[in-house]
Amino acid sequence: MLCATSRLLAAREASALPAHPRGRAPAPRSRRRELHFPGHPELPPGDFLVGRFTKPSVPTGRRVILRKGRMPPAAGGGLAGSELRPRRGRCGSQAARAAGRDVATEAATARSPKRPALPSSRRFEAAGRWALLALVTLTSFASRFHRLDQPPHICWDETHFGKMGSYYINRTFFFDVHPPLGKFCAFLGSMLIPLAYLTVLELSRSLSAALLTAALLTFDTGCLTLSQYILLDPILMFFIMAAMLSMVKYNSCANRPFSAPWWFWLSLTGVNLAGALGVKFVGLFIILQVGWNTLSDLWHLFGDLSLSMVTLGKHLTARILCLIVLPLALYIATYAVHFMVLNKSGPGDGFFSSAFQARLSGNNLHNASIPEHLAYGSVITVKNLRMAIGYLHSHRHFYPEGVGARQQQVTTYLHKDYNNLWIIKKHNSNSDPLDPSLPVEFVRHGDIIRLEHKETSRNLHSHYHEAPLTRKHYQVTGYGINGSGDSNDFWRIEVINRKFGNRIKVLRSRIRLIHLITGCVLGSSGKVLPKWGWEQMEVTCTPYLKETLSSIWNVEDHINPKLPNISLEVLQPSFPEIMLESHMVMIRGNNGLKPKDNEFTSKPWHWPINFQGLRFSGANDTDFRVYLLGNPVVWWLNLLSIALYVLSASVFAVAVQRGAHLPVEVEGLSQVLLRGGGQLLFGWMMHYFPFFLMGRVLYFHHYFPAMLFSSMLTGLLWDTLLRLCAWSLASYPLARCVHVLGILSLLLGTAYSFYLFHPLAYGMVGPLAQDPRSPMAGLRWLESWDF
Amino acid sequence: MLGFLQQPVMVTAEVNLNMVALTAVGLLSRLWQLAYPRAVVFDEVYYGQYISFYMKRIFFLDGSGPPFGHMLLALGGYLGGFDGNFLWNRIGAEYSSNVPVWSLRLLPALSGALSVPMAYEIVWELGFSHCAATGAALLLLIENALITQSRLMLLESVLIFFNLLAVLSYLKFCNSQKHRPFSPRWWFWLVLTGVACSCAVGIKYVGVFTYLLVLGVAAVHAWHVIGDQTLSNVRVLCHLLARAAALVVLPVLVYLLFFYIHLLLLCRSGPHDQIMSSAFQASLEGGLARVTQGQPLEVAFGSQVTLKNVFGQPVPCWLHSHQSTYPMIYENGRGSSHQQQVTCYPFKDVNNWWIVKDPGRHQLVVNNPPRPVRHGDVVQLVHGMTTRLLNTHDVAAPLSPHAQEVSCYIDYNISMPPQNLWRLDIVNRESDTDVWKTILSEVRFVHVNTSAILKLSGVPLPDWGFRQLEVVGEKLFRGYHESTVWNVEEHRYGRSQEQKERELELHSPTQVDISRNLSFMARFSELQWRMLTVRSDDSEHKYSSTPLDWVMLDTNIAYWLHPRTSAQIHLLGNVVIWASASLATLVYALLFIWYLLRRRRRVCDLPEDRWLRWVLAGALCAGGWAVNYLPFFLMEKTLFLYHYLPALTFQILLLPVVLEHISDHLCRSQLQRSLFTALVVAWFTSACHVSNMLRPLTYGDRSLSPSELKALRWKDSWDILIRKY
């Protein structure tokens, strides 16, 4: 690959001169030719699609007018400079972009009989660019598919996602903390590299920057490892990169709004956003980035007084349509499919509300018919309204010594179980209300009741003992023998939503149980009890009468032979309700992934410095081991580049602010650095810093989207810096080599480091790295890497 | 020569009577009957204990905020001659006569009172009229929640004072920047900005948000200075350096100074010692310092040591063993090695002693001269009381089955050989030949055969393990984590060859003398780190609330109830002011967006200077509200209504700004203007009226009848205490 590149370079050098337009370049411009990558692409390879669409749409005449009116044509290879020149005049961005197109026009007009050498060299160049892109793609595919079948066993999170794949196949409902799309395949990872390549090419208009980026990503062991397994991350990263690319593309079509490519890229951005969000919620960050970009874009348009309000309205509508409505529709559609496919009851049921479960076939609430209103003697299950808490539960085990009174435990339990059944009784009579001779008596708001646990015949009871985990609440126990207890078993039942009257309606009524003597409210704290409580959740009686969901319950199952049954169909929730509920459950689930006290967890500050990897498979020296760790050379170069970028960008920004007059070449480069690099840096920050605020368990692989942005930034930065370097040394004969040599050495360096570290990704056997006989001996540069 | 006598000596004084009057009423409202109630009110119970610690100069650790706030309150106690003897255990407890209630509450009250004229100054410096400025000050004056909070021994009013001071001095600095940069006045306000910011941060961590806001505004202004091409490069550099020094370096130094004074004052050991490292504890008078005083520094072969886990979560503990063995079969059916248990024990005990043994020799005493143990040496650890050796092997640990069991080896004569060699790994070594030092060295024990690391898993064992904490050999994870790191706390050279003598020796206290000191920076960083990471159990509170409850005052806090009558103090704001301040923020935001969009289309509704003034007022007041309010949505701690007061103060400052803007720019005719003025007067009167109605709940000076109290319960969510007779 590398020698192919250099051959291409040579070929370009030869073709550079003829491509130079009109030959009226003054002295400084001819120097620019040396500075820039020889034979700068008039139409970068990524633009082919655009090019194909656009050529018929814009008449040449208009382009010429544009060129005359606004800006002198940038000379040979000056596209980078003119494309990103600062805005002059009112609608500057258009002008700059128009000037960018200009060169293409020029190239087109230059196709005249005066320059007979041109067509063939152009064709040659175009072919070269395609070849380069193909090469990049091929290399990336080759590296990703090499030894894909090893190891043959399940690695790490594959247990998780593989299991979900099979759920889809069986159409069993399950619950996961991530949205549904994309648990199926895993080879989009290789597409990342061409996407990154094209993005950088579009931002910097420089082949060498794009090539460097592609090399960094191809030779990164971390990206490689991640792409080789059945995980969500390659899919997520694919959508993020695709969204980024299409956003950048549509930015560069901004001078031709409402043209076909413009619509194409805009809507493609929307589609990719939906994809990214559909895979994982981390996709939210790219949405924020695109959103920010769109806002600033609109802001520029808004400041352009030549555009009428109607045009602006069109712009706004187009963006709302493509970036909000379209992705939202797609996202909802994935959910619709998700719910449609998963219509059977499964282990995830308990996380959802009773009404939600009624739509899952196989669930006992599906097509069920139960009595509508609660009466004394009914056997019921009581479910907490807060999600993922479960049913009020008791079992034949006592609270252990030292935890409140030694009475029967009362907990909440997520799964359906006969121990969830309770009988509702009057507080003052023990006569069996199911006796057919007695009239049916409905339970009403404000009644004093007893709840008897059906299996153990003990009453729901509370008293002034502190609860096992939440010390400020009272303990709730099961008490009494055969249903006879004491006055601490009395509860007042209150209905919160009394629009159905004072009776208690199954599923619909939201009820509170208030302990008569202490005045506290029955609730679940959501804390998990230790082993003695079978890791079910704590039930307490809280003296704080705040209305929170955790102290509100509803009746789910209801058995009463004396009452007529009604069908539950009427209670089924609508689609928006389902959407809302499943999102609430997912957010709760995500936040619930809290690290335990002494667990070693990965901290966000570990990530960019490649502090510690993740063991994908195997731990001992006899195992086949795969270790997810970034290629340290690449990662540390990225880290250095971010610092260097901040430094150089602020130097340029201050210089501009001080009103310094930069030479045209430098100004072009500084614009690449500030605009293109700025977007990439913003992307990196958006995909990295939010993790510092997250309370959930974090893993090393969460950094990889940010790492993509940081690698692109590295490619762009080094290319720009080397060009600057070459420009400032232009008086020396060696100067023109500085750029080429620099890029080459970076490429070779990363390739060599990949050669060193490739066993991490492709798997290693043999002794651990401390052992001098190990294949990785001497490569354990940080003590925290445990391979 | 006596020429100066030819002119009369003139003193020209300009006294802004507005300011004087505002200061006077501010003082009156905050200081009136300050010593009433003579009982512990709400969070005074919390701050009070720290004041007592300061008075007794006992070390404490409080995770709620940096020490400056506590120190200010303690200063009040010091001035009042408080001896620290009071049991702060119950809200509502009567103060004993030795507690100088008045002077303890004086500083917060003064800060609250001075905030009133400062509000006036801020609005004036922002470029608005005296009328608006007076309005802002009056609103702060009659805001009931601010009055309540300033009249008690609490920190919010002090925080608000420094927040306002930072903003005010930055504005003054800005305005003198236009006229005479680098004048003494310019320097004074610049430096004061920095100092006020660090004071705000030093009182509560949330002060950092105001600091960042001021820093942000300063950065934008500095960026304009850079762009000002009439200034030379050198002058621009001077401007930047001056700002960096005063707004970044100085605050850091002042913040360090707080800790320096804090540590200087608190020199005695106290109840929170346990949380700190052994080295830190040894720097306090009494406590561990007395125990470890004069221990030999270098650990040698034959040394008797106790090993403390550095992580110390869930509790600080020492490596421990005892006669009992692991049960043959666990509850879940897994088997164990049935060897002697090794645990981590949170109390001092004779069973915490271990002897460092050279694997090559049999003796358990220290040679003369002692042979120090170095990094990389292989050692055996002998349990002092049972003389069994610390051992680990390929048996799953009782509660963490992925790790290896650690035991003291008993030879059952079965095919399970002892594996008791450990390699010493000094984590904080300076060179590879470092000697293992008492207290100072943090070491890991790496098992030679399996390369497992001795680690505290922190899980309490079941009853068979006496609920002590589990210790395991961690095999999978070989990176750095504090739970794998241990340090020697108590140490002496073993002298006795015989087991009986040695047991006696182990029971006797250690002696010999070497003094050691930690540098200030080391103590600061440790203390700061522990303060940030100490976990307060997230307790639910009756009066806790969520940020959404605050904007429209949907909640209150009952601070105090008279033991006999129904006189009571509540943190309860002036509803009219809260609602209109929130409304003003909304109006400001809408107007701002409207103007911004129109300016973008080159329609300038406001002249340039008016626009800039409007933007700056928004950045500081609306921005101040946002930065002091929005972060609470991300916080996981228990939140109370009083957390909103700093944000509210900024919001109130915005209110007259918006009103004046409406009257000047949106009222087109004189008639409209007069109508609007009348409306404003009516609104202000109603605010005064509400404030007056809520006064009994603010000062707690008058006992209201149940019906009056019920009448005051304007919102169902307010909790006003009504006695049942």
Automatic annotation (TrEMBL), chain A:
Membrane-topology descriptor: Multi-pass membrane protein
Top EC category: transferase
Molecular function (Gene Ontology), one example: dolichyl-phosphate-mannose-protein mannosyltransferase activity
Residue stretches making up the MIR domain: 371-427, 440-496, 501-558
PANTHER family in alphabetical order: DOLICHYL-PHOSPHATE-MANNOSE--PROTEIN MANNOSYLTRANSFERASE, PROTEIN O-MANNOSYL-TRANSFERASE 2
Region (Disordered) location: 14-49, 69-120
Keywords: Endoplasmic reticulum, Glycosyltransferase, Membrane, Repeat, Transferase, Transmembrane, Transmembrane helix
Superkingdom assignment: Eukaryota
Stated name of the protein: Dolichyl-phosphate-mannose--protein mannosyltransferase
Segment forming the signal sequence: none
Localization annotation: Endoplasmic reticulum membrane
Function: Transfers mannosyl residues to the hydroxyl group of serine or threonine residues. Coexpression of both POMT1 and POMT2 is necessary for enzyme activity, expression of either POMT1 or POMT2 alone is insufficient. Essentially dedicated to O-mannosylation of alpha-DAG1 and few other proteins but not of cadherins and protocaherins.
EC numbers: 2.4.1.109
UniProt cross-references to SUPFAM superfamilies, sorted A to Z: MIR domain
Annotated organism of origin: Bos taurus (Bovine)
UniProtKB/TrEMBL annotation, chain B:
One Pfam family here: MIR
Keywords on record: Endoplasmic reticulum, Glycosyltransferase, Membrane, Repeat, Transferase, Transmembrane, Transmembrane helix
Cellular component, GO, one term: sarcoplasmic reticulum
Stretches assigned to the MIR domain: 296-359, 370-427, 431-491
Transmembrane stretches, start-end: 58-79, 127-147, 153-174, 186-203, 209-228, 240-265, 575-597, 611-634, 640-662, 674-694
Any GO BP: extracellular matrix organization
Location within or outside the cell: Endoplasmic reticulum membrane
Coiled-coil ranges from the UniProt annotation: none
Family per record: Belongs to the glycosyltransferase 39 family.
Function: Transfers mannose from Dol-P-mannose to Ser or Thr residues on proteins. Transfers mannosyl residues to the hydroxyl group of serine or threonine residues. Coexpression of both POMT1 and POMT2 is necessary for enzyme activity, expression of either POMT1 or POMT2 alone is insufficient. Essentially dedicated to O-mannosylation of alpha-DAG1 and few other proteins but not of cadherins and protocaherins.
Protein name per Swiss-Prot or TrEMBL: Dolichyl-phosphate-mannose--protein mannosyltransferase
Organism per entry: Bos indicus x Bos taurus (Hybrid cattle)
